[in-house]
Amino acid sequence: MSAKIVILWPSTEMTGQMTEQDPRVPGLRHDTVNQLRELGVDVRLAEDEEEVVSTIPNADVYYSRIITPEALAEARALRWFQSSVAGMDGFWFPELRASDLNITNTRGIYSDVISDHLYGMILCFARGLHVFARLRRWEKTATPFIHLGHSTLGVVGLGGIGLAVAERGHTSGMRVVGVDPAPKGKPDYIEKIYPPEELHAMLAESDFIAICVPHTSETEHLIDAAAIDAMKDTAIILNVGRGKVISLGALTSTLQAGKLGGAGLDVFEQEPLPDDHPLWQMDNVILTPHVAGRSAFPYQEARRMELLVENMKRYLAGEDLVNVVDKERGYVV
To answer: Of 51, 78, 255, 281, which one has the greatest count of Cβ atoms within 10 A?
Structure first.
């Protein structure tokens, strides 16, 4: 079986001229192109979306961050779209969902770094690290401490990231529970997995709540005023999933009213979070600018390229692809 793939890589990305580009990334990408060609794949690099639209009609594979309606309309021979990101929000348009296109994403390449980021927030709240860092003076009683061994961690979404978070919590002696619509078994380190309709029951027993779900029609504002009201007054909520999963207004109002122990947020309903937003001024809130998925290069880019090559080998062999997205749900099941 042969294949023609169109890859959207502007020349600035292939030559390392982008502001945040690591000099090793272009080399990784050139190596990937060579690997694909060694497999007998006809590789076409597109400079921009206009070039994608003109080259995609005869391609059966497309690799990019997203696929646009314009590109899909011209993709008469396309059979498989490999997204370079894990989240499908932002381009989940009706025509794509209705198509017979196989869609895969990069789920799994971020699990360790994102779970590390969230676990770092847990440690900050447990040990008061963020408080002492801001205080800049000798005051041992500036913050209460939380003993993780006496705490319950509730994880919303038990995909790769959620499971990694749960395992880290268990290692610290935390009791771990979770919510997931379609769990693939129950690991020993999770005491109980609740169905989505029992979300509030799980929230009510959790001291730390980790949001690790993608943004879909089912998860938008999953954490609304009612869900927040179900939490303990001392609960600490942490979000590394997607910003729109939490109602920013409801969370802000609750924190302003003095309920909840705190919040650690890497993603927001509105990004970037405005400089004058009240959350910036709250001592019991840790904010990071959507960087939980970042790591030192070239690790993640290497994982991304390895996944592309592995899936291409599977495609050529007629085997099942890795990370096939359920188009009804908008994520990998």
So the answer is: 78
